[in-house]
Amino acid sequence: MSVLLNRRVTSKADFVNVASEIYDDTIAFLTRLSARYSRLMAEPIAMLAGEVEDFAEKANSIFPSDPQRIDLRIRHLLEARASLMALDVRLNKCYRIMSKNPEGCFTTSTGRTVDAREAAEKLEAMADNLGAKIDRENDLLKGQIESTSKRRKK
Q1: Distance in angstroms (rounded) separating the CA atoms of residues 84 and 152
Q2: In terms of C-beta density within 10 A (0-12 exposed, 13-18 middle, 19 or more buried), how is residue 30 classed?
Q3: What is the pLDDT of residue 106?
């Protein structure tokens, strides 16, 4: 049974789910690049998105029960956040390139290109959605780092 949206609370492990969504959305975003640019840009950007997801999973798998585990968990959270910030910069560069020719990023079901205005709107929506998830993940990771650091002080 689903919980109503206004009654949901943020799970402590939500940073893992959001990291996974960021990876999926990044791949979808990168598939819109032209072949010329995708050969140069897609793989390193996809690897950054994968690092965010991997480090989030690694951090989540470590229960902070002793100082060594706390430090290791914090290290993975910091790595996830660093990869996330680098991913944000790279995706911004991708967006700037794609916005120069947005109609080249989208086609209809019959294979025709979408007009420039509609393509720009679609590209903007994809970028906004991805940007909001990156901002949310950043907040979640900072919260996890802070709460895990508090365990060290006990």
Answers
A1: 25
A2: buried
A3: 86
Bridge partners of residue 91, in order along the sequence = none
Global pTM value: 0.90
Three-state DSSP class for 113?
strand
Q: Which of 42, 75, 43, 38 is nearest to 56 (CA)?
A: 75
Please give the Cα distance from 116 to 73 (Å, whole number).
46
The distance between the two most distant Cα atoms of the chain, rounded to a whole number of Å, is 62
Residue 153 has what pLDDT? 67
SS3 of residue 66 by DSSP: coil
Rounded to 5 degrees, what angle do the CA atoms 33, 35, 37 make?
60
pLDDT in tens, 105-140: 888 788 888 899 999 999 999 999 999 999 999 999
d(Cα 41, Cα 74) in Å, to the nearest integer?
A: 30
SS3 of residue 107 by DSSP: strand
Instruction: Give the amino acid at 51.
Output: E
